[in-house]
Amino acid sequence: MGEEREDPQKLKRLAAASYDYENDSRWDDYWSNVLIPPHMASRSGVIDHFKRKFYKRYIDPDLEVESLDAMSSGSSSQPARSASPSSRPEPNVQPRPRSTGSTAQPSGASPASGPPTSLRWDRQTIQFSVNAWVFAVAMLGIFPLVPKFLSHRAYRLSFMGTACSSLYSLYSLYGKPRAWNLPALQVYFQSIIATKDFIYFIYCLSFVSSQLCLKFALIPILCRALEHVTKFLRRNFSRSSFYRKYLEDLCVWVDSNITTLSILSSQAEIGLGFLLILSLFSWQRNIIQTFMYWQLLKLMYQAPVTAGYHQSVWNKIGLTVNPLIQRYAPFLNSPLSAAQRWWFR
Fold first, then answer.
1. Does the keyword Chloroplast apply (predicted)?
2. Backbone conformation region of residue 101, classed left if phi is above 0, alpha if psi is from -120 to 50, else beta
3. Buried b / exposed e across 217-248, counting CB within 10 Å, b at 16+?
């Protein structure tokens, strides 16, 4: 919807911003050992800066991270000379408390204190179990040779499992509203509406109750489940002989191609919007579902965790379609302009 050239660093920064730091035990150790004054630690820009440094160190060494001094000088007049420019952990710094709603580690225990293949029935293990089940069921639902009744049931169970996983993650990270009145609910939803878990929760609700069965809609579900499962396996089973023999290559490939999977999911999500428009001309049409799904696409276009990928796909669509419309169907310019005003409103 606007011409812009692809910037590899922009996609890398988007991948760093959407990375699930809460479920990575290395981030807790890293952040708790960063030496930084309390008045700067409360700034979201400073936290984002160290998240990018963590992502560069452990995930993507090619990510370019600007210095903290340059960032703070452009956003605040307070000096940042007391902030540590190095991401090297300092052993004598007390760890900061984690966000409310997340599972706390026992005092004196570190994530690597037990055997490398031991499982603790904590939030991460529950998420792994649910997402592994979702991945298996979604593969059953998308495979073409599976009997129709079984495939249809697996299709709906995949959305139900992902919706439950997203809802559980939202509750673990953000808790529940402080009160059950309109102002408290508005504040609560404003804090979660742009998160990836909330977006996938609404995405699943829009398909699990629909009579229309679009197996194409399982692609984002598969990508999300695969990403969560591989991250858990790499953290907890890296020393297992079975993992090293059969799963390590796949997990390494997935971790190094997170951006590719996110772009694939964005393409599938936008393609589903056009499929729902085409379904309006069939007996399975659902006007309310189509309208609500395009509202969700608007949210994906604006939310920071998905905006870069969706905007990139829309730019490519615009570069392909606009010349054809100008040449063969100029009468569509007026309705397209109205649609764009609604989209950006």
1. no
2. left
3. bbbbbbbbbbbbbbbbbbbbbeeeeebeeebb
Is residue 189 a contact partner of residue 178, using CB atoms and an 8 Å limit? no
Amino acid at 35: L
pLDDT digits (tens, 9 = 90+) for 240-285: 888 888 888 888 899 889 999 999 999 999 999 999 999 899 888 8
At 42, give phi and psi (nearest 5°). -80, -10
Integer-rounded Cα Rg, in Å, for the chain is: 22
| Separation of alpha carbons 265 and 271, rounded Å | 10
**Which structure tokens are listed for 324?**
């054809």
Phi–psi pair at 181, nearest 5 degrees = -125, 170
Structure tokens at 191: 């804090």
In the predicted model, is pLDDT for residue 60 greater than 50? yes
Say how far apart CA 95 and CA 331 lie, in whole Å: 62
State the DSSP H helix or E strand holding residue 221, giving kind and residue range, or none if neither: helix 218-236
Q: How many CA atoms lie within 13 A of 163 on its CB side?
A: 14
What pLDDT, on the 0 to 100 scale, is given for residue 68? 64
Contact at 8 Å (CB) between 6 and 14? no
Instruction: Pick the closest to residue 100 from 39, 178, 25 (CA basis).
Output: 178
**CB atoms inside a 10 Å sphere around CB 156:** 17
What angle, rounded to 10 degrees, do the helices at 44-58 and 68-75 form?
160
Angle ∠(113,114,115) on CA atoms, nearest 5: 130
| Length of the chain in terms of residues written | 345
In angstroms, rounded to a whole number, what is the distance separating the alpha carbons of residues 294 and 280? 13
Q: Are 60 and 12 a contacting pair, CB within 8 Å?
A: yes
Specify the amino acid at residue 318: G
